[in-house]
Every structure is written in structure tokens, then in C-alpha cells.
Amino acid sequence: MSSPRVARVLDTLFGLSCVIGLYDAQWMATGFGAPLRGWLIFVALAVAIGAWVWRRRAQGRAPVLLLLGAVLLGILLSDGPLLLPLVLVAILVAVLDLGLLAGAAFITVTILGLAAVMLLAHDVPAISIVAQCLGLVLMFGFGIAYASLVREVEVARAAHEAATARLDETNARLHAANDRLRAAAATERDLVLAQERARSARELHDGLGHRLTVVTMSLDFAERMRERDPGRAWAEVRAARETTAEAMREMRLWVRALHPVDVGDLTDVAAFDAIAESFRGTGLDVRVEVSGAPRELPAPVSLLCHRAVQEGLTNALRHAAASRVVIAVDLAPDELRLTLSDNGIGGPAGGLAEGFGLRSLRERAEALDGGASVETAEGRGTALSIRVPLPPAEASATAAPVHHGDAGATPAETGATASAAAPVHHRDAGATPAETGATASAAAPVHHGDAGAPAPDVARPEGVASARGVRA
Questions:
Q1: Residue 432, class by beta-carbon neighbours within 10 Å (0-12 exposed, 13-18 middle, 19+ buried)?
Q2: Cα dist. 201→205, 207, 208, 254, 335 in Å?
Q3: Of 282, 368, 382, 470, which is the most exposed, with the fewest CB atoms less than 10 Å away?
Q4: Can you tell me the distance from the alpha carbon of 321 to that of 425, in angstroms, rounded to the nearest whole number?
Q5: CA–CA gap between residue 142 and residue 162 (Å, rounded)
Q6: Strand pairing of 371-376 and 382-389?
Q7: What ranges do the domains of the chain cover?
Q8: What confidence tens digit (pLDDT) does each residue in 5-25 have?
Q9: How many CB atoms lie within 10 A of CB 229?
């Protein structure tokens, strides 16, 4: 079936052709003096109109064949050219509904029938019949060529509509899949947070809780023994003080590991030294070694490197039992290489399985056409490496101001959720963030300015040396 626009055009052409045909039938029945032929033309036109209505309401070959038969009968009964427009409309319908061969067959039958009528009924000379038939072939040829063009347009339109429908269906499935993925990611984040809280509660209970219990017992014992054995009582007080000092040191480690370092608007390697300085107060020896010409880093690269440094130092402090970490920054003209190497306990000989934190860093690095990897060995420490391509220095120098939190960005884009910033763990192979990471407050190790909130105005820590130098 044709498109609504083509159908309306065909209806108009068919109606006008039928009006002309009715005039021809009336002329045949009265003015020409052939009433029987005139009435037969009336009947043929009535059948053609009925077939046309049938065709518009139902698909199939039968109404089209009935229409072609009625038009053929009318043109054979007529002695003039007034029914030729109706024949052209019939050719259009035959090609559109039945195909090019059907249209060609209808033209052939029509021309042969007219030639037979002219030869047998009107005794027209053969040369005149040939000339008129050639004229009809030429005229009907234009009609069938136009019908073929319309058919191709209709086929292309139908194919386009089908492709559009398939595309819409595919888009709907993709949207549904994205919704399911977002729901699964949200569920996974909630699970990670719950596991982190449970693990942190266990560690606090087993570590600080145990020490505080020991302090309480020591003080209770000292209170009972202060009259009978003052020496033992004071010894317990001193033990309680030492235990309290150990608990304070452990609490500082927890606070340092869980508290994000804000580097303000620093977008070059100086931010790495700022993060390193915040960890040096824990007793961890952190050195920053920079090679290459210092430059301002693009915002996504800066954000990725800040998180890698924060997470690497956090894991070296809490899990790797490391005393020294070297942050090596290699600034090539077209690439940045960042490596955090510690002297901690390392991991199994087969290397660490990719946990949630490393996967998050790797995915972010790959999104920037870079990569992330971890190398480790038992007793020989761990090395976290980040490789990211850099734009030419001229392009970065003329770039727009860099913001560490894109306004309007979602947590998944800024890495502020626990699942996006779960630390890379140096101790438990294949561990999830719940097994080796920080609590919910550590899920976003570096706050570079949350979306929709003003970025904190934090100056570089006093006494922090140039990032190009080597800090002891």
C-alpha cells in the first residue's frame, strides 16, 4: 500500500479520470449514437470505482486485478482518447501494488486490444495502427517509468520506516539496559558501603577497642592496688599510658587514611607534593621525583593522578606496612607516567587480582586513552603505575580554566562515590573495597570540588617544596 500522500494523489487523479470517463460514456450513449457501448462504459467505470474503494480498504491482488479489467474494458469500448488518463492511473496502481512486470503486462494487453479493435471493428489501415500503437507505447512508457520511480521511492520509504522502528526499538532496549546498569551500580555502591562500614567497625573493635579495654582494665587494677601495692599500681598506670599512646597513633593513622586531602586549585605536579606532605606526618617517608618540564595538567588527567596518589599512599600506610614511598612523575611531551613504589610487604608471586579500586582507576585511565597496572612481589613492595597521554603543551596552555569537579557532573563522573574511588589494595589479592578499602568517608579519597558546590580555597601547605625537588 502506498503512503498517505501518494494515496491522496492517486485518489485525485482517479477521480478526475473517472469524471472524464463519465463524460465519454455519456457522449457515446447520446451524441455518438452508440448507447449500448456508452452504457457498458458506465458499467465499467462503476466497477472500476468499486474496485478502487475495495483496494483502499483491503490489501490484496483481487481489487487491483478487478480495477485493471474494468479499465481495460472501458478503453476498448471507447472510440476516443478520453479514457487514456484512467489507463495511466491504472498503470500507476499496477506497478505500485503488483510490480513492474504487472504494469508492463497491462500495457501490452491494452495496446494489443486497441490494435485488434482498430483492425477488426474500424478497418483502420495497418500503417495507421502501427503509428498509433507506437504513440501509445511511448505515452504508456512514460507512465510506467514514472510509476517505477514512485515505487522505488515508496520502497525506500518503507525500508527507512522499518529501520527507524528497529532503531527506536534498539534505543528503547538500550535505555532499559542502561537503567538496569545504573540500578545495579547503585546497589553495588550500597553493598560496598555496607561492607566497608562492617569491615571498619571490625578493625576499630579489634584494634582500638582492644587497646581501650586494656587501658580500662589497667586503670581498674591500679585503682584496686593503689593502697596494697602502689608500685604495681603505678606500673599499670604507665602501661595504660603507653597503650593510650599506641591507640592515639593508630587513630591518627585511621584519620590520615580516611580523611581526603584537598589540593585546592593545584592542577600541576605540585598537588602531588601537597598530598605527600599530608602523609609525612604519619611517619611515612614520601618522596616526589619529577622528570620533564613541569606543566599544567588537563583536568581529567589531574583528577585521575590525584586519586591514584591518594589511594596509593593510603594503601601503603594502612595495608602494605611500608615505611617509604617514592612517587615518580615522568612528564614527556605527549605522555604522563606516574608510578608509586613502596617498600612494603608486597603481594603474592602471581600478582594482585584486579579489585574494585584498581578496576576503577584502570577504567578512568582507559577513558583517557591510557592505562593502569600494579606490579608486586612477596617482600619486595608494590608499584602502582598510571600512563595517560597529554595534549601538546601549546594546546593545554590555551585551554579553559581547569576545575577538579565538573559543574553538574554526576557522582559517577566525578568519582565521588565509594565504588568509583575505592583504593587499590596492596595486601589482599582480588579483594573488594569492602575487604581492603576505606570507610565511606574514604570512598572519595581526594575532594577536588564537588559538583554544584564551591571549590574550597585551600592554599598549598606551608613549607612544601617545589614538586621538582626530591623530598626527604
A1: buried
A2: 6, 10, 10, 12, 42
A3: 470
A4: 12
A5: 30
A6: antiparallel
A7: 4-124, 187-255, 261-442
A8: 888 888 898 999 999 988 888
A9: 14
The candidate with the shortest Cα–Cα distance to 143, out of 47, 258, 135, 249, is 135
Q: Are 446 and 257 in contact (CB under 8 A)?
A: no
Distances (CA, A) of 39 to 23, 30, 44, 196, 269: 12, 10, 9, 95, 99
| 52 CB-near residues (< 8 Å, 6+ apart) | 14, 63, 67
Give me the mean pLDDT over the 363-369 stretch.
86
CATH hierarchy code of domain 187-255: 1.20.5
Is 64 within 8 Å of 55 (Cβ atoms)? yes
- pTM comes to 0.39
Terminal Cα-to-Cα distance of the chain (whole angstroms): 83
Rounded to whole angstroms, how far apart are CA atoms 113 and 36?
19
The amino acid present at 345, given as its one-letter code, is: I
Q: Do residues 362 and 372 touch, judged by C-beta distance below 8 A?
A: yes
Q: What is the pLDDT of residue 166?
A: 92
Please give the backbone phi and psi of residue 58, each rounded to the nearest 5 degrees, phi first: -145, 140
Task: Give how far Cα 118 sits from Cα of 131, 135, 327, Å.
Answer: 12, 14, 102
CATH of domain 261-442: 3.30.565.10
Nine cell digits for residue 442: 574514604
Among the listed residues 15, 17, 49, 43, the one whose alpha carbon sits nearest the alpha carbon of residue 29: 43
